[in-house]
Amino acid sequence: MIRFLDVHKSYRVDGREIPALHPFRLDIVDGEVFGIIGHSGAGKSTLIRLINLLERPSGGRILIGDTEMTALDEPALRAQRRRIGMIFQHFNLLASQTVADNVAFPLRLAGERDAAKIHSRVGELLERVGLAEHAGKYPSQLSGGQKQRVGIARALANRPEILLCDEATSALDPQTTAAVLELLAAINRELKLTIVLITHEMDVVRRICDRVAVLDAGRIVEHGTVADVFLHPQHPTTRRFVNEALPEEAASAGAPLAEVRGRKLRLTFRGATTLSPVLSRVMRESGVDFNLLAGRIDHIKELPYGQLTLALEGANADAAVAALRDAGIEIEELP
Amino acid sequence: MTAPLLQTLFPNIDDWSELGRACIDTLLMLGGSLALTVLIGLPLGVLLYLTGRGQLRAMPKLYGIASLLVNVLRSVPFIILMIVLMPVTYALVGTKLGVRGAIPPLVIGAAPFFARLVETALREVQQGVIEAAQAMGASTWQIVRHVLLPEARAGLAAGITVTAIALVGYTAMGGAIGSGGLGDLAYRYGYLSYKSDYMLVTVVLLVVLVQLLQMFGDRIVARYKRH
Ligand SMILES: Nc1ncnc2c1ncn2[C@@H]1O[C@H](COP(=O)(O)OP(=O)(O)OP(=O)(O)O)[C@@H](O)[C@H]1O
Ligand SMILES: [Mg+2]
């Protein structure tokens, strides 16, 4: 568990204290993929860098398990940092070292001298990230996606319990992003390590996170399971992020919707209900007509979900809504 | 034989072995002072870098003092530095003359210059790479040893090249006040005795030396820059 207890952070700029993060509490559970989303300057990097104390909080306490990070002296902090891997937007590999030496670097820093041990561990890690045949290359000879895989292998070298990802896919194209996210998800599953990931793309959150916090101007304005936050965003900032991830929905939610007659609803199906013919059964039984205005069916991590915007017409609309609710469908009335 | 030809071309140069010795002296002065300059300038440059504003071990006071010292030494013309340092030189190596007498002022003149070049080269290393090492639990010493110096090696090699060439110039100047070497010949025979062929030969030799240093340096820099 990573705990932030009334942590806040401000930077001194020209003699004035500028708050970057207002006091907050947050728990990140062992083994989960926790996303932090926010616009540029919201304080995401500041927050994630507090975890390994690359940034010292201005106040409050940060705990990892039973260890109070904020109370450690230098050597103890360095030892703790070895249990926390980190990957970066711009990879931050050593340009003067080969891929293998980059991955071996944290092992050597930790005092490993046995060349055979280093060699086998590096081989294992490169195998894991699918770069076994690139061991002798230099970072400048790799693509962005490959560089990030080296970054991931390097971050995993000391078998950390936590992996911090600072915009790890922001410099990558959509396909490479998908592949890297897949790798991170697999690592989370297989190694059971906790991943804390920051991003400004809701799609990244949707694909691999279990829970998410939305950061806006230094405050956590919303947090919860990704399904809850994604399907029922409350804060305007969260809505904007969700709309960015669902462009067609955003487009159809404008003026035309107001002109449609009938009772407008947004239906949310989660999990098993997504896959059963509830809607057609209820409509048939209640004799209500519906007009489909917008919709999508997709996944949030492994959870299938559907979200449909409908206009209902007919005398039995109330009964139909009640029947849908009974079947476990979440319903929001739209104006 | 070649001797008669050399004699017609350079009528005043009767003792070629003296020229050879002067070459060796210049190379000894260069090699010795360059080695010591790097030995002293590198740590000093690392110190300047680390204690600079916003760096790993920012210490404004220490940085201010080191920086001032470096600037003072750099702003004194070498020939004056050499004269001023004579008592120090004597105390250090027991003579003010010859190759040994030249090395202390050369090092004291060049080390601050090289230290600045080191500082600049280290600043070129991306902050992100340093941060990644910190995140892995590296100590400051480990970061210097395993991140900063290897990552900045192209810049450091360029700095050593520039310093070596500056040192060639300094050794030639030192010749005027008794440190020997090619500069000494050029000054004594070429300038004071109007034997212009001495002047020509020493200048050509110095140009060749500088050219070789530059080529060698550029090669290493290019190799390091590839990755
Ligand atoms: N070292 C610093 N000194 C002064 N202000 C800083 C420093 N680092 C960050 N800030 C400020 O703190 C705020 C939060 O910065 P942070 O880097 O955490 O944002 P972010 O959410 O990661 O943004 P981005 O998406 O652009 O990376 C910003 O207003 C930024 O200007
Ligand atoms: Mg950031």
List the helices and strands and how they pair.
The complex is a heterodimer of chains A (335) and B (227).
Chain A: E1 2-13, E2 16-28, E3 33-38, H1 44-51, E4 59-64, E5 67-68, H2 74-81, E6 84-88, H3 99-109, H4 115-128, H5 144-156, E7 162-166, H6 174-191, E8 194-199, H7 202-208, E9 211-216, E10 219-225, H8 226-231, H9 236-245, H10 247-252, H11 255-259, E11 263-270, H12 278-286, E12 289-300, E13 303-313, H13 317-326, E14 330-333
Parallel strand pairs in A: 3-8, 3-9, 6-7, 7-8
Antiparallel strand pairs in A: 1-2, 1-4, 4-5, 9-10, 11-13, 11-14, 12-13
Helix pairs in contact in A: 3-4, 3-5, 4-5, 5-6, 12-13
Chain B: H1 3-9, H2 16-51, H3 60-75, H4 78-84, H5 86-93, H6 98-123, H7 127-135, H8 140-151, H9 153-174, H10 181-192, H11 196-225
Helix pairs in contact in B: 2-3, 2-6, 2-9, 2-10, 3-6, 5-6, 6-9, 7-8, 9-10, 9-11, 10-11
Characterize the structure shown.
Chain A is of the alpha/beta class and 335 residues long. Chain A is built from 13 helices and 14 strands. In chain A, the strands form three sheets. Chain A has a six-stranded mixed sheet, sandwiched between helices. The longest helix of chain A is centred in the middle third of the chain and has 18 residues, at 174-191. The two termini of chain A are 42 Å apart. Chain B has a single domain (16-226), classed as MetI-like (MetI-like fold), CATH 1.10.3720.10. Chain B starts with a helix and ends with a helix. The A-B interface holds A 52, 54, 77-82, 84, 86, 88, 90, 92-97, 105-106, 108-110, 138-140, 154, 158, 164 and B 126, 128-129, 131-139, 142, 146-147, 150-151, 153, 224, 226-227. The structure holds adenosine-5'-triphosphate (ATP) and magnesium ion. Adenosine-5'-triphosphate binds at residues 11, 13, 20, 38, 40-46, 200 of chain A.
Keywords:
heterodimer, A: 335 residues, alpha/beta, 6-stranded mixed sheet, 4-stranded antiparallel sheet, 13 helices, 14 strands, 37% helix, B: 227 residues, mainly alpha, MetI-like fold, 11 helices, 81% helix, binds adenosine-5'-triphosphate, binds magnesium ion
